[in-house]
Amino acid sequence: MALSFEQARACVLREVSAGRGSLPTEQIPSLEAAGRVLAEEITADRDYPPFPRSARDGFAVRASDLPGELHVIGEVRAGEVFRGLVGPGGAVEIMTGAPLPEGADAVVMVEHTERAGDRIKVARSLQSGENFNAQGIEARHGSVVLSPGRRLGFAEIALLAMVGRECSTVYKRPRVAILPTGDEIVEAGQQPEPFQIRNSNAWSMAVQVARAGGDPRILPIARDNYESTRHLIEQGLDADLLLLSGGVSAGKYDIVERVLADLGAKFFFDRVLVQPGQPLVFGTVHEKFFFGLPGNPASTMVTFEVFARAAVELLGGAQEAPLRLLQAQLSKDLRQKPGLTRFLPAQVSADGSTVAPEPWQGSGDLNSLARANAFLVIEPDRESWAAGDLIRVLLK
Ligand code: AMP
Ligand code: MG
């Protein structure tokens, strides 16, 4: 059954979200949790900020005293507390990060004051609440600051440090078996015969899997015969997800689908109206999800990026697995035959505003893919674009 790009993506998201069951978790040091997905709710251990915190260097004052002349009764720096009270006509010199003294309700910036001995003159007026952060304004004690399903980046990990969580519970990385197929394929360390090709797909997939939060395991190359393919697929089913490359086209020796069918696989689709990557297979076998990605390097990379990556992310506990799309202006006119959603290697300008197609020789052209920093996403129902038109771009 052939699906459109959108239908196939929706199918992957739906099936994996529904079928992933309860995912295993582990406790790890938060500092090592970058890229992992949080499996627990994180709450604020106290108010944030924990005290009314000055946002400026200046003077803590009573706003109703301004404009006017004030008496400086003391000083408070970050890490200290002022023990007295700011009464009418009083001010306390205050540094950024210091707690606002009692009685004060605003901070006047030092730049807006004129000082003479223990007196300051302030020419402008000030609102109550200006230039400090009220206690608990960022997060209340006990409120949720991070929810399960969130991927942890530098800001989230800083938040874990802020609330004192040296360790946190995250989802385990899904184990992803990578199974290259093909009689013509030899390992990257080998000297190929003139009619052989080195196995580059296993490496690109391993990098893509790791980047999506998975734990890649590369299997030996399956030969294009039933026994070899079946034996290695069975090995791959130990993992949480099986990714095959090659052997899913209509050729006489493309036997991946036959082996999977014999193992009792359920196929959600086996053709998607995309290029590169039409003969893409997705299903479950022995309660594990699998993808049969077409073997051309561009097909393998693109179909991983737009379909399998979401499965790895969801199996890793992510709540969502969106595509990283943006819009940019096309650098030159473009014509494409309609009917397929196409992903063409492209170069987005450094400021993200324009995009140029990268010259390429078709699905086997790894050089073009290495030069590109993005893919143009060509809609299936449109034939021509003019230079300057906005077009969708998928970041690489
Ligand atoms: P297939 O999908 O098996 O028909 O393969 C399509 C094309 O991709 C063929 O030209 C293969 O040589 C090439 N190919 C298949 N597997 C790999 C691989 N693991 N690494 C690099 N190229 C591959
Ligand atoms: Mg093949």
Bound molecule kinds, no repeats: adenosine monophosphate, magnesium ion
Radius of gyration: 30 Å
Helical element count?
A: 7
Strand segment tally = 30
Strand order of the largest sheet: 8-5-7-6-10-9
Query: What share of residues are in beta strands?
Result: 25-35%
Oligomer: single chain
Helical content (DSSP H or I, runs of 4+) = 10-25%
How many domains? The number is 4
Structural class, judged by helices and strands? alpha/beta
CATH topology of the largest domain: Molybdenum Cofactor Biosythetic Enzyme, Chain A
Shape: elongated
Largest sheet: 6 strands, mixed
- The CATH superfamily of the largest domain is MoaB/Mog-like domain
Q: Can you describe this structure?
A:
By secondary structure, the chain is an alpha/beta fold. It folds into four domains: 2-24 and 172-315, MoaB/Mog-like domain (Molybdenum Cofactor Biosythetic Enzyme, Chain A), CATH 3.40.980; 27-46 and 143-171, Alpha-Beta Complex (Molybdopterin biosynthesis moea protein, domain 2); 53-133, Molybdopterin biosynthesis moea protein, domain 3 (Molybdopterin biosynthesis moeA protein, domain 3, Beta Complex), CATH 2.170.190.11; 325-395, Beta-clip (Beta Barrel), CATH 2.40.340.10. The chain contains seven helices and 30 strands. The protein has helices at residues 5-19, 154-162, 201-211, 226-236, 256-262, 297-315, 366-371; strands at 2-3, 25-29, 42-43, 53-54, 58-61, 68-76, 90-94, 106-109, 113-116, 119-122, 132-133, 144-146, 167-171, 175-180, 185-186, 197-198, 215-218, 241-245, 266-269, 271-272, 274-275, 281-285, 288-293, 325-330, 334-335, 341-348, 354-357, 374-378, 384-385, 390-395. Strands 8-5-7-6-10-9 form a six-stranded mixed β-sheet, with no helix packed on it. A six-stranded mixed β-sheet has the order 17-14-18-23-22-19, with helices on both faces. A five-stranded mixed β-barrel has the order 24-27-26-28-30. α1 runs parallel beside α6 and α3 packs parallel to α6. The longest helix is centred in the last third of the chain and has 19 residues, at 297-315. The chain starts with a strand and ends with a strand. Adenosine monophosphate (AMP) is lined by residues 180, 182, 184-185, 197, 199-202, 245-247, 249, 251, 294-297, 364.
